[in-house]
Design goal:
The chain is α/β, with parallel strands linked by helices and 265 residues long. The protein has a single domain, classed as NAD(P)-binding Rossmann-like Domain (Rossmann fold). It is 46% helix and 14% strand. A 7-stranded parallel beta sheet has the order 3-2-1-4-5-6-7, with helices on both faces. Strand 5, helix 5 and strand 6 form a beta-alpha-beta unit. Helix 1 packs parallel to helix 2, helix 1 crosses helix 8 and helix 3 packs parallel to helix 4. The termini are far apart. The model has no long low-confidence stretch (mean pLDDT 96). Bound molecules: nicotinamide-adenine-dinucleotide. The site of nicotinamide-adenine-dinucleotide has 28 residues, from helix 1 and helix 6.
Length: 265
């Protein structure tokens, strides 16, 4: 099946984890894909996998905190493939050692988080949307997080910047809907990227699983498939929305895991 045939997609953070999965799955559905990452080797590895599977791909080195670098990325995509239809603004995150509670959070880390998560999302869209309008429409996909929806004891900056990503998503959707540019966000829950899988102790993994309604944690492909849907015309009536892909983590009552154990039989 080629659900993205004829489309050109740029995926940032495609050198690893969820971004890599999204790029590979989009290619499998017929998109020509630009895999962009700070980590040149990661981008090249993703590109090699896509090429080996018969896809058309361009690896690019980008720093999404630098507007010039984003402009060069979009220009390279359009120069190579003649247009742009899908942008996946996937890079984000904060440093968990510095992103603490209100009284102990590092404010320089907060500023870095704004640049990495929100400013990068705005800039990516700012450079890509004119090309989407020229193409008759397009889809911007932003990576938020369930952290945007709940309060937490740590990661004050992370929650704030991901909530801002959701807000920016709605503004872009409203502003460019008339030109058929859609903009949606995905909120992953706990996703077992290689980095997490190798570093999380088994008891933490078990605790995360208990917090889900489903009895397993997400894989990068679980998010990648959602991004393929948002990139495709199957989601043509969907804009300005946040799709929560979290195994039921954010909707489950905190009492549910304990009550499950109380069920008879
Ligand atoms: N993994 C999860 O459980 C989870 C949950 C919710 C949200 N997210 C979101 O997913 C995204 C991260 O994806 P992942 O979990 O696959 O992580 P990952 O660490 O595997 O991938 C992130 C990629 O981004 C690249 N990158 C970092 N800074 C960059 C920069 N300035 N410019 C360009 N590229 C840069 C890295 O080199 C890396 O390849 C973030 O937006 C994060 O907030 C992840």
């Amino acid at each position: 099946m080629e659900r993205l045939k004829g489309k050109v997609a740029v995926v940032t953070g495609a050198g690893s984890g969820i971004g890599r999965s999204a790029a590979e799955l989009m290619s499998r559905q017929g998109a020509r894909v630009v895999v962009a990452d700070h980590d040149t080797r990661g981008a090249e590895e993703t590109a090699a996998t896509i090429e080996a599977a018969g896809g058309t791909v361009l690896p690019c080195t980008v720093d999404v905190t630098d507007e010039g670098s984003i402009a060069d990325l979009v220009a390279a995509a359009v120069g190579e493939f003649g247009g742009l239809h899908v942008l996946c603004n996937h890079v984000g995150g904060t440093d968990p050692r510095k992103d603490l509670d209100l009284l102990r959070m590092d404010m320089d880390e907060f500023d870095r988080a704004v640049a990495l998560n929100v400013r990068s999302t705005l800039l990516g869209a700012r450079h890509a949307v004119p090309h989407m309008i020229r193409a008759g429409g397009g889809s911007v996909i932003n990576t938020a997080s369930v952290a945007a929806l709940v309060g937490d004891v740590l990661q004050t900056s992370y929650g704030a910047v991901k909530a801002a990503v959701v807000s920016v998503t709605k503004s872009i959707a409203v502003q460019y809907g008339p030109q058929r540019v859609r903009c949606n966000a995905v909120a992953p829950g706990a996703v077992m990227t290689p980095a997490l899988e190798n570093n999380l102790p088994a008891d933490v993994v078990e605790a995360l699983k208990k917090g889900n309604a489903l009895p397993y944690l997400g894989s990068p492909d679980d998010i990648g498939h959602t991004m393929v849907f948002l990139a495709s015309d199957e989601s043509r009536y969907l804009t300005g929305q946040l799709l929560v892909v979290d195994g039921g983590m954010s909707m489950q009552s905190s009492a549910a895991p304990g009550r499950r154990a109380m069920l008879p039989g």
